[in-house]
């Protein structure tokens, strides 16, 4: 945390770790006036929003579906298959994506077989967001069901019995018993996901993007990497990083306040 002070001081490699002298808000004014920053800021919001939109509700849906499976072997098999991508290194996941979407990859082979022309997916900016979100869903949805499945086991079976006596079908039982039962878990995970909204997957984007896809793929974390390490402008990068952290803090506090006042569940 003390290192954040270089966002307000001129830092030079080899000098003091807390910077040479004060420059105030100079670096903040620099990136706020930089069109490139606002482009990567927009990309961060879009990718973060798409990731939250798909990766938050899908584990809930999968957990509800698994909860309805009565064949134990089938349920364990589906769980194992859905958990597996989580344990793969991001480098491996990126390599798989690149192999599938290359010009000679499996996807383009299907495109050619259907009579279409090859598509350079990894060089087309308009395809990057779809590729990233799809790979993120594949890698995280299965693992995300664990907490929800654990929460489902805490729901009293008498509630389902009472609902059936009242004539509720499976859909009504899910809506009026299951979802309220796992609501505290849902709200807690939503707040945590909102807190990481700005920290879109740095490693995967760094491995998948290239200069051709910068218009839609470049986010704050990758921009910081290039500015801080490639250009050795550490103070400028620290200022942007601090700005991103403050936004994340505001999002968490706001989400927690809204959750506490609307559904009565919050982190604190």
TrEMBL record:
Database matches in Pfam families: BPD_transp_1
Location of this chain's protein in the cell: Cell membrane
Gene3D superfamilies: MetI-like
Record-annotated membrane-spanning stretches: 45-69, 81-101, 137-155, 189-209, 234-259
GO BP: transmembrane transport
InterPro entries (UniProt xref): MetI-like, MetI-like_sf, UgpAE/MalFG_permease
Keyword presence, Electron transport: no
Keyword check for Zinc-finger: no
Stored CDD domains: TM_PBP2
Keywords: Cell membrane, Membrane, Transmembrane, Transmembrane helix, Transport
Topology in membrane: Multi-pass membrane protein
Annotated ABC transmembrane type-1 domain residues: 41-255
Predominant location category: membrane
UniProt cross-references to PROSITE patterns, sorted A to Z: ABC_TM1 (PS50928)
Cellular component, GO annotation: plasma membrane
Entry similarity comment: Belongs to the binding-protein-dependent transport system permease family.
PANTHER family: BLL4140 PROTEIN
Protein name stated in the entry: Sugar ABC transporter permease
């Amino acid at each position: 945390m003390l290192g954040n002070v270089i966002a307000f001081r001129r830092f030079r490699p080899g000098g003091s770790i807390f910077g040479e002298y004060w420059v105030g808000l100079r670096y903040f004014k620099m990136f706020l006036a930089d069109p490139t920053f606002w482009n990567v800021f927009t990309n961060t919001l879009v990718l973060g929003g798409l990731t939250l939109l798909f990766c938050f509700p899908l584990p809930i849906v999968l957990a509800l579906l698994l909860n309805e499976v009565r064949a134990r072997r089938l349920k364990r098999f589906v769980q194992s298959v859905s958990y597996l991508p989580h344990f793969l290194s991001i480098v491996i996941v990126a390599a798989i994506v690149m192999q599938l979407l290359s010009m000679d990859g499996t996807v383009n082979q299907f495109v050619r077989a259907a009579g279409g022309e090859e598509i350079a997916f990894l060089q087309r900016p308009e395809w990057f967001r779809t590729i990233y979100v799809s790979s993120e869903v594949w890698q995280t949805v299965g693992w995300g069901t664990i907490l929800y499945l654990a929460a489902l086991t805490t729901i009293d079976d008498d509630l389902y019995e009472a609902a059936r006596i009242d004539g509720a079908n499976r859909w009504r039982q899910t809506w009026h018993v299951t979802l309220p039962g796992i609501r505290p878990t849902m709200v807690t995970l939503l707040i945590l996901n909102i807190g990481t909204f700005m920290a879109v997957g740095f490693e995967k984007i760094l491995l998948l993007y290239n200069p051709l896809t910068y218009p839609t793929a470049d986010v704050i974390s990758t921009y910081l990497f290039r500015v801080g390490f490639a250009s050795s402008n550490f103070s400028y990068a620290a200022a942007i990083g601090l700005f991103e952290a403050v936004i994340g803090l505001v999002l968490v506090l706001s989400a927690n306040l809204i959750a506490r006042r609307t559904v009565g569940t919050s982190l604190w």
